[in-house]
Amino acid sequence: MIGAEALGMSNAEAAAREIALRHNFTEIRIPALERVELFARSTGETSDVVEKQMYSFLDRDEAETAVALRPEGTPGVVRAYIEAGLDRSAPEQRLFYSGPVFRRERPQRGRYRQFYQFGVEVFGRADPACDAEILVMGDEVCKMLGLAAACTINSIGDAVCRPAFRAALVEWGRANFDRLCEDCHNRIDRNPLRLLDCKIDAKLAESAPSSLDYLCDDCRSHFETVRRLATAAGVETTINPRLVRGLDYYTRTAFEFIAEGLGAQSTVIGGGRYDGLVEAMGGAAVAGIGFGIGIDRMALALEAAKQLRPTMPDAVMIMLGDKALAHGAALARTLHRERLRIETLSPERKLKALLARADKLGARFAVIIGEDELARGVVQLRDLTLGKQREVAESELAAALAKSD
């Protein structure tokens, strides 16, 4: 990644990190290489991620361990959470992570074989207020970036009510077997919820049963409270009864933030609740919820929305002569300590070329130091926007540059 896309990724990750810290999340670092069984147990053996998209191979150790490049972040976080004993000693945790993930995809805009994900996970909270907070965080990230994104939400029930919904989907799938794609033929009995997630059969899926019609009283109350609390916090949600997120571990709340201008790859944030996952992976019966941000897609969305604002230097430093060169380097470092963006330019070019370079960089000021200025402890401060130049004492330079904002 280079240029605007790299800038967008940096901006998206910085915003996500800032929001996570504001909500008192702690960072966790997880490896890119894990055992295959981790994802088979968590993401699901019948999921497209495990069946088709995961990069896996045998290690050269004695046991020929099957390992994989992580296709998502949540399973690794859960594994680390359990191995640290937190599921029993301090189950309520708020964690965030970031880094590359890998999926065997057909490369296209917004869908890459290596992409970047920022994720948050909350353990030990089963209450709907936690779901609402997670939605608020997603909305805050988008708003901090100036990105318009619609929040779609669904509830896919729990162990009490989902079996009836699953049975209804199986019946619907068999009744429409001849109209379904080959992949959905295999999903009917193995993972019928994926029938709703199919891109090929999306139009047909509109006639499929809705999970909302099968929710038990507890799940319905949970869902309604999540939406009510999110609305109270300023996050408007739209129900999408076909939203299942395609991963086996989700329960109850599932959601996505959809951005404009990305076509088919429009989901920039996706997540949901996974109350049974920690226990399924060998830990205690601890509730969980989280989301993942597709940093690459977020960058594309920012570019499409014209929300990428390249950072420009506060000033460039132009040093004329050997003595000024050494002094200017030290002065630039002093300005860096004041959190000013200063770029020092090549001393081997003429002043006219250096001013042209400063203008191309978008700098507001050029700080010019020659032997005369050096002897008097001053600099020439040229306003490149107004075309005016004035003499400023070195001791007042940082304040003069900061005041220009």
How would you describe this protein?
The chain has 405 residues and is an alpha+beta fold. The protein folds into 2 domains: 4-161 and 215-304, BirA Bifunctional Protein, domain 2 (2-Layer Sandwich); 315-403, Rossmann fold. Helix content is 41%, strand content 22%. It contains 16 helices and 16 strands. It has helices spanning 4-22, 36-44, 48-53, 74-83, 86-89, 128-144, 162-175, 182-190, 202-205, 217-232, 277-280, 295-304, 322-337, 351-361, 371-376, 394-403, and strands spanning 26-27, 33-35, 56-58, 66-69, 93-102, 114-123, 149-155, 237-239, 251-259, 267-273, 288-294, 315-319, 342-344, 365-369, 378-383, 388-393. Strands 1-5-6-11-10-9-7-8 form an 8-stranded mixed β-sheet. The chain has a 5-stranded mixed β-sheet with strand order 13-12-14-15-16, sandwiched between helices. A hairpin with a 4-residue loop joins β15 (378-383) and β16 (388-393). α1 (4-22) runs antiparallel to α6. The longest helix has 19 residues, at 4-22. The model has no long low-confidence stretch (mean pLDDT 88).
Blueprint of the fold:
Elements lengths: L3 H19 L3 E2 L5 E3 H9 L3 H6 L2 E3 L7 E4 L4 H10 L2 H4 L3 E10 L11 E10 L4 H17 L4 E7 L6 H14 L6 H9 L11 H4 L11 H16 L4 E3 L11 E9 L7 E7 L3 H4 L7 E7 H10 L10 E5 L2 H16 L4 E3 L6 H11 L3 E5 L1 H6 L1 E6 L4 E6 H10 L2
Parallel strand pairs: 1-5, 7-8, 12-13, 12-14
Antiparallel strand pairs: 2-4, 3-4, 5-6, 6-11, 7-9, 9-10, 10-11, 14-15, 15-16
Helix pairs in contact: 1-6, 1-12, 6-10, 7-8
Any idea of the CATH class of the largest domain? Alpha Beta
Share in β-strands: 15-25%
At the fourth CATH level, what is the homologous superfamily of the largest domain?
A: Bira Bifunctional Protein, Domain 2
Number of domains: 2
Low-confidence stretches: none
- Return the structural class: alpha+beta
> What's the architecture of the largest domain in CATH terms?
2-Layer Sandwich
Q: Give the biggest sheet.
A: 8 strands, mixed
**Strand order, largest beta sheet:** 1-5-6-11-10-9-7-8
Enter the CATH topology name of the largest domain: BirA Bifunctional Protein, domain 2
Mean pLDDT: 88
Determine the fraction of residues in helical runs and give it as a percent range. Answer: 40-55%
Number of helices: 16
Rg computed from alpha carbons, rounded to a whole number of angstroms: 27 Å
